[in-house]
## 1
Amino acid sequence: MPGMLYLVPTPIGNLSDISVRCRETLEQADFIAAEDTRVSLKLLNHLGIKKSLVSYYEHNKAFKGNVIVDRILAGETCALVSDAGSPAISDPGEDLVKQCAEAGITVCAIPGPCAAITALSISGQATGRFTFEGFLSTAKKSRREHLESLLNEQRTMIFYEAPHKLLTTLEDMAAAFGPDRPISLCRELTKLHEEVIRTTLGGAVDLYTQQPPKGEFVLVLAGAEPKVQEAATPEDAAKRVAALMEGGMSRKDAIKQAAQELNLPKNVVYDAALEI
Ligand code: SAM
């Protein structure tokens, strides 16, 4: 019988956010795969759990992934944790989940702390539709391309960012989306100095030009306003009918088509076309 892979979210600040189910899963797993074993050891000590730990992170995941899959196939149960928050979300785990799924191993994700969702829910921005953008690249070209791809995005956008790169990121965003775009800077969530700054990109640049940003941040950026299409006028209709007729269409068909294209009642287009 193969074992299972459990994705176990851990607190993003407040240690009381560990759930009963996460604690039980960590206790019952045969081994724990951790992004940084020293960080996870602190949490396990706090929970009073003693368990064998293996490291699984960006630079050893190709090799360690196979080791973990083999152990699970041999019948062991693995709990995967990252330094904080949900494994596989801008954290190691994505590849391991894929590898396990391909090997026919059952993967179980336990719901729990995630910085992106915690930030979105208190951002004050629209939550009905959103996109998760993770970290912007540090390479200038791909960073610019990433931002350009979002220029017409109407959904709320969620970004992760490290404090020392925050000001540059806000400046690049203000240049791309304009200084008036609303943004919520969600800082130190679930920690002592938790703070949500609801401002604009220009306001955020001003703020962090005056004082260096400290702590961990999630940026929740408002989507673009929907473009309001101006209603067509009878003059537009007359011009369109004339153009269609010049192209060889009968007056009747041209009126029908122009009415459809311009979303105008047929009688309005008909009256406008009488002027031609
Ligand atoms: N997998 C984690 C999750 O989904 O919660 C995210 C890991 S990612 C490597 C780390 C980033 O998450 C930080 O740079 C920051 O943007 C965000 N983050 C983590 N904890 C946070 C907190 N307490 N407050 C604000 N942002 C946080």
## 2
Amino acid sequence: MPPKTIGLLTSGGDCAGLNAVIRGVVSRATGYGWRVLGIRHGTMGLLRRPYAYEELGPAAASSTVLRLGGTILGTTNKGNPFAFPMPDGTLLNRSAEIAEAVRALGIEALIGVGGDGSFAILRRLAAEGGFNLVGIPKTIDNDIGVTETSVGYDTAVMVATEALDRLQPTAASHDRVMILEVMGRDAGHIALAAGIAGGADVILIPEIPYTVEAVAAHINKIRESGRNFALVIVAESVPAPGGAGVWQQHTGGGQTYGGIGQVLAGAITSHTGAETRVTVLGHVQRGGQPTASDRLIASAFGVHAVDLIAEQKFDRMVAWQNRCVVDVPMAEAIARPSLVDPDGTLVRTARGLGIGLGDGR
Ligand code: F6P
């Protein structure tokens, strides 16, 4: 019997820990005697002719790969195959080309490492194209339901925490209010966790509505206590005073959240007279070496995903629950995003520490 062939692709925004996943998958599959085809640049590799892929051998199973940031396979967060943007501006359904590539390459099961958007597309491709799929959750935003953590989140929190560590001495030296804007899309997980770990005075997240007056009152209280600097961390999707989201247009098209830090700086200065400076952390949160925790989760996810294929269990996503790797139906995992619980442990911890959440409580 020829060895089983499985496919592996990384999809959506990159993050630290993707290569640790690849290493976990290749190591485990090699143990079963299977071939792993690494698809380049997510589903884009299956749309190219000739197909863009490589057979992943011992080098991809090495501990050198485990430590690397980014993804050795490349990824994309553009080019939905069901509505693929064509040069003439139209959108074309190219999903049949992907099913044809999966069949032609002899892929018996595909492992997709992605976030909720990628999973929705991959599930539809698998259902319509008749191939088997297993999902591994990755996103710095940590907004995938059913799993307590996703690959990349811990590294992003560590980077944001370190940024606060670095901002604190310069804030104190200049008596300034330092505002750190972090990523997270519609969820405030990175801001909340890093804000607590990094000793922020104010944490603003999209799940808790704020007023500039409450933020200013909190900063003034700190100043009255004799400390003339403050650290504010704000999630990128927090709206401007008045409620409008703040967006960044990118060259070549596309837009993402971005710019709320600068908006807040002006509002805080006009309400408190404080001198403010803004740091937008951006993609620094996604790059670099993964933390030990991300490497562990990624390794457990990679091994378990291959075991699922061995057990012929498909349309499932690996997940982390109660210190264990488990698997759940993909439909359940992407049914709703996981946002910060405004009554949850971390919010209560922040309030207990006297951190202002912008709601005056
Ligand atoms: O979803 C991950 C993420 O990093 C978000 O936190 C952020 O809003 C977005 O991707 C940035 O996307 P891009 O890489 O296209 O700038």
## 3
Amino acid sequence: MSDAIEDIREEALSALEQRTDSDSLSDWHSQYLGRRGAVGRLFGTIGGLPPEERAAFGQRVNALQKDLGAAFEEREALIQSQLLARDLEEGEIDISLPAYPRRRGGLHPSTRTHREFQTIWADMGFQVYQSRDVEEDKFNFTLLNLPPHHPARDMQDTFYTTDPRVLLRTHTSPGQIRAMRELGAGGTKPIRVILPGMCYRQEQVTARSEIQFTQVEGLAIGRNIRMSDLKGTIAEFAKRMYNPKAKVRYRASYFPFTEPSMEVDVECFLCDGEGCRVCKYTGWLEIAGSGMVHPDVLRNGGYDPSVWSGFAFGMGPERITMLKHGIQDIRYFWGNDLRFLQQF
Ligand code: PHE
């Protein structure tokens, strides 16, 4: 007498050998192992058997299901590897074909300038101190000698948050207080840092001014720091950044947090001081605001101004980047236009 289970096993296994591609293979799967397949139908007959035969029959159908499943997987792996071998043989995959060119990103021109700055200042012994973009009014103004209603606050139109004590920093100078408090160990240690970062001002956006721009602040605190140290340090930076023969000049200026305060000009590096359109025929370019740290500011940073002194400066890298690459409009910097960015 033929055995239904063994018949199906034999039929299924020999049918499987005829299947040579994945479509016919999946037909096979539904024919035998699918929900309405042959094995499923065998399970369906269990109920019609005499009770004493059910368990043994069920076990055999289970075994069949397992065996057919294993045979299916084996066949599937074989077909896959044959297909791959055939593709390789027939050259459907041409491994000698050049790959699609990969688009390479580039560094933002402003990032490049910042890196150049950081390398130079690091070589001169300045550590990078990362301060925060969102500041307290206290740090951005009050502790820098700009109490509420001080007229010099108007020099920097400010973006406030819904909390009037919290704002977007208008310059990197609040980092001076944070650096002194954090690195000065209660006014006992000298520090030498630069503080690079984004600043924000609520200004009319034009080709020459943006609501966001970067600055690089510098701060040195020590026991014997004098104006000559500031002048020498900036002159050295200018030589390394612009031109080994770069001349620097200082003009008296005013910032509430430095005293005395000076504006720093460097000889125009495009015309070597001859006078050109970029320097408006003056031969000089303004590169920094600077000065000796005001005694109040030293005190706010935790230092005793009768013992400690220091200098600070703030530079605007975008201007330098614009001059260097002949960029006419500062709005390109944060406009994210790839046609601009891909040029660098
Ligand atoms: N914070 C000043 C500005 O944004 C620049 C500055 C920094 C001046 C440090 C003096 C000392 O205009």
